Amino acid sequence: MASLNSEPVCKRFHLQDGKVCLAPENDSYATTELSDEDELVIWGVVQYSVRDHGRG
């Protein structure tokens, strides 16, 4: 969990070609590449979800 430019996000943090990216688990959404102007605050790590996400 994090805040990107004051908006809450739940994505995976990783480096891609030397750039910081936030990638969603759902392929229907785009990966976000961060720029120097972006403000990212990491709140924590999701370890468990009680919701059924429909993966089978």
Structure description:
The chain is mostly beta strands and 56 residues long. 0% of the residues lie in helices and 38% in strands. It has strands at residues 2-4, 7-9, 12-16, 19-23, 32-33, 40-42. Strands 2-1-6 form a three-stranded antiparallel beta sheet, with no helix packed on it. Strands 3-4-5 form a three-stranded antiparallel beta sheet, with no helix packed on it. Strand 4 (19-23) and strand 5 form a beta hairpin. It is globular and about 35 Å long. It starts with a strand and ends in a 14-residue tail after the last strand. It comes from Pseudomonas syringae pv. cilantro.
β-strand amount: 35-45%
> Tally the helices: what do you get?
0
Shape annotation:
globular
| Quantity of strands, as a count | 6
Mean pLDDT: 91
Largest sheet: 3 strands, antiparallel
> If strands are numbered along the chain, what order do they take across the biggest sheet?
2-1-6
Radius of gyration: 12 Å
**First-residue to last-residue Cα separation:** 24 Å
Helix share bin: under 10%
Number of domains: 1
Structural class: mainly beta
Order of helices and strands: EEEEEE
Low-confidence stretches: none
Organism: Pseudomonas syringae pv. cilantro
InterPro entries: LexA/Signal_pep-like_sf, Peptidase_S24_S26A/B/C
Protein name: UmuDC operon protein-like protein
Pfam families: Peptidase_S24 (PF00717)
